Amino acid sequence: MKERAALIETALANTVVAHQGPAAPLYESMRYSLLSGGKRIRPILALASCEAVGGRTGEAVGLACAIEMIHTYSMIHDDLPCMDDDDLRRGRPTNHKVYGEAIATLAGDGLLTDAFKVLARCANGSPNARAETVLQTVAELSDSAGSAGMVEGQAIDLLGEGNPMDLARLEYLHSKKTGALFMISVRGGARMGGANDGQLEDLSAYARAFGLAFQVVDDLLDVESSPEQMGKRTQKDQARGKATYPALLGVERSHQLARELIERAQHALAGFGAAAEPLRHLAAYVVERKL
Amino acid sequence: MKERAALIETALANTVVAHQGPAAPLYESMRYSLLSGGKRIRPILALASCEAVGGRTGEAVGLACAIEMIHTYSMIHDDLPCMDDDDLRRGRPTNHKVYGEAIATLAGDGLLTDAFKVLARCANGSPNARAETVLQTVAELSDSAGSAGMVEGQAIDLLGEGNPMDLARLEYLHSKKTGALFMISVRGGARMGGANDGQLEDLSAYARAFGLAFQVVDDLLDVESSPEQMGKRTQKDQARGKATYPALLGVERSHQLARELIERAQHALAGFGAAAEPLRHLAAYVVERKL
Question: By three-state DSSP, how is residue B88 classified?
Answer without folding.
Answer: strand
